[in-house]
Write a structure and sequence with these properties.
There is one protein chain. The chain is an alpha/beta fold and 446 residues long. It has three domains: 161 residues, FAD/NAD(P)-binding domain; 100 residues, FAD/NAD(P)-binding domain (3-Layer(bba) Sandwich), CATH 3.50.50; 109 residues, FAD/NAD-linked reductase, C-terminal dimerisation domain (Enolase-like, domain 1, 2-Layer Sandwich), CATH 3.30.390. It is 29% helix and 23% strand. Helix 1 packs parallel to helix 7 and helix 9 crosses helix 10. The longest helix is centred in the N-terminal third of the chain and has 25 residues.
C-alpha cells in the first residue's frame, strides 16, 4: 500500500527495494511478489513511468485519433462520405488521456498490492547499504535502480525554449506550425501525429532521416506516411528561439520541439555504480551492476531502450534478486513506429551475411487496408534470408497488422520452431494483411 506516514529515522529491516515504477521496476516488483519475496517500490511521480505518463501510451492515444482523421480525409477524397468540417478539441483529448492514465495507474497499484508489495511515493536517496525516502532509512538485501530516462537535450543555444515529449499533455491547443528537431523514431511518430492533426510540420535533422532502417521501409514512410511533413536533412542547427529554429542556411518559423533521443536518469546512483559515457548504468546479462546486490533495468541502463525490453529486464532482475538465476538476450528484439500504418521490423544481428537474398510482397487488402488499394499505399512486407540455411536474417512490414505480425516472426526466429513446418501448417484468419507465411513458403520452394 502507499505509505507516506509513520516516518521514522531509525533503520528498517532489510528488503528488496526497487526505485522507479515504470515497466522495468513495476514488472520486477510483480515478479518478486509472485515468487514470495517482499518488495518495496519507490516512485517519486506516477506509477507506470515514462511509457504510461509521457511516452508510448500518450502517443498511442493520439494515434487513434490521428488515424481517424486520416481515414476521414481518405474517404472524402474517394467520394465516399460528405466532407463536412469539424473541430479537434485538443484540450479535451488531453483531459481524457489523463483520466485514462488515472485508471491504468490504479490497476498497476492494485497489481502490486495484491502481490504483497509496498509502494512508497517519494524521492529516494541511495547510499552504499541503505535507501532514504521521506525521512525513513531502509537497509536492503537487494536494490534495483529502474529510474528510466528523460529527453536528451542537445548542445544547441536556446534548447530550454523547445518543447519535448513531456510537454505534449501540457498543450491546451495545437500549434499552427511545429518544427521537430530529430530524425529518429520519436521524431517520426510525433511528426506523423501532429501533421495528421493539421499542423504544418518540419522535421529538422542534423544527419539523415531514419538512417538505420531498411531503404524500402524508409522510402515508403517518406512518400506515403509523411507526405505532409517537410523533411530537412543535414542541417546545422545554430539556435532555438521560442517560435523559431535557426539553422546555418535557413530559418524555420514555428514552435520548436526536441525529439533527439533519451538520456538515462542515473544521477541518483552516480556515486554508487559504474556508468558509461552517456551516463547509463552498466549491467551484465543478469542485470547486475558492479556491486553484487545492486541491479539496474530499463532505460537507465545501456541496453535496448524499449518498453518490452524494460519489462524483460525487470523480470530478469526480479528473478535474480529472488535467487533464481536468469539472464537476458538482446538479439532479435522487434521494433517499430506507430504511424498511419504500423511500421515494424526484426533483425538477427548474429547471423547477418553477405550472401543474402530478399523478397518483398505488397501488403494485400484487409482490415484497415481495403480502401488503400485505390490509392496504392497498402504497404509492404519484406524478408532477407540465407539461401543455403533458409534462416531469416531480417523481416519487416508496413501494414495495419505488422505490430503483431513482426512480433510472432520474432518469436519464430528466436526459437527452434521449424520454419518449414510453419510454412506448411500455418492457417491465417481471413481477411488478413499478414503475408509473412507466404514469404516463408516461397523460401522453401527453392
Amino acid at each position: 500500500m502507499v505509505n507516506n506516514s509513520d516516518k521514522q529515522s531509525s533503520k528498517r529491516v532489510k528488503k528488496n527495494i526497487i526505485i522507479g515504477s515504470g515497466p522495468a521496476g513495476r514488472l520486477a516488483a510483480l515478479e518478486l511478489g509472485k515468487l514470495g519475496k517482499e518488495a518495496i517500490l519507490i516512485e517519486k511521480n506516477y506509477i507506470g513511468g515514462n511509457c504510461l505518463n509521457e511516452g508510448c501510451m500518450v502517443l498511442c492515444a493520439l494515434s487513434d485519433i490521428a488515424t481517424f482523421l486520416n481515414n476521414k480525409k481518405r474517404y472524402e477524397d474517394l467520394g465516399l462520405i460528405n466532407g463536412e468540417k469539424f473541430e479537434v478539441f485538443y484540450g479535451e483529448i488531453v483531459a481524457k488521456i489523463k483520466r485514462t492514465q488515472e485508471i491504468i495507474r490504479k490497476i498497476h497499484m492494485n497489481e502490486n498490492q495484491d502481490c504483497g508489495n509496498t509502494i512508497i511515493k517519494g524521492e529516494a536517496e541511495i547510499f552504499e547499504e541503505t535507501v532514504v525516502v521521506n525521512g525513513e532509512t531502509f537497509g536492503y538485501d537487494n536494490l534495483l535502480i529502474a529510474t528510466g530516462s528523460k529527453p536528451f537535450m542537445p548542445n544547441i543555444k536556446g534548447n530550454e525554449q523547445a518543447l519535448s515529449s513531456p510537454d505534449i499533455l501540457k498543450l491546451d491547443k495545437l500549434p499552427e506550425k511545429l518544427n521537430i528537431i530529430g530524425g529518429g523514431a520519436i521524431a517520426t511518430e510525433v511528426s506523423s501525429l501532429f501533421s495528421s492533426f493539421g499542423c504544418d510540420v518540419n522535421m529538422i535533422i542534423r544527419e539523415e532521416f531514419l538512417k538505420q532502417i531498411d531503404n524500402d521501409l524508409r522510402e515508403f514512410i517518406v512518400k506515403k506516411l509523411l507526405s505532409n511533413v517537410e523533411i530537412h536533412q543535414n542541417q546545422n542547427i545554430m539556435e532555438i528561439e521560442k517560435n523559431k529554429v535557426i539553422c546555418e542556411e535557413i530559418e524555420f518559423d514555428g514552435t520548436p520541439f526536441l525529439a533527439t533521443g533519451r538520456s538515462p536518469n542515473s544521477e541518483i546512483a552516480k556515486n554508487l555504480v559504474k556508468t558509461d559515457s552517456r551516463g547509463a548504468i552498466i549491467v551484465d546479462k543478469m542485470m547486475k551492476t558492479n556491486i553484487g546486490n545492486v541491479y539496474a533495468a530499463g532505460d537507465v541502463t545501456s541496453g535496448v531502450n524499449l518498453t518490452p525490453v524494460a519489462r524483460m529486464e525487470g523480470i530478469v532482475a526480479g528473478r535474480n534478486m529472488a535467487g533464481y538465476s536468469n539472464f537476458i538476450d538482446y538479439n532479435m528484439v522487434p521494433q517499430g513506429f506507430d504511424l498511419d500504418l504500423n511500421v515494424d521490423f526484426i533483425q538477427d544481428k548474429k547471423n547477418k551475411s553477405s550472401n543474402e537474398k530478399e523478397m518483398t510482397i505488397p501488403t494485400p487488402a484487409g482490415p484497415g487496408n481495403f480502401w488503400r488499394v485505390l490509392t496504392k499505399d497498402t504497404g509492404l512486407s519484406k524478408i532477407r534470408f540465407s539461401p543455403t540455411t533458409k534462416e531469416i536474417h531480417w523481416a519487416g512490414a508496413i501494414s495495419p497488422s505488422s505490430v503483431s505480425d513482426v512480433a510472432y516472426i520474432s518469436y519464430l526466429m528466436r526459437t527452434e520452431h521449424s520454419m518449414e513446418k510453419f510454412a506448411e501448417e500455418f492457417i491465417e484468419i481471413h481477411p488478413s494483411t499478414d503475408v509473412f507465411h507466404k514469404l516463408i513458403s516461397e523460401i522453401y520452394k527453392h
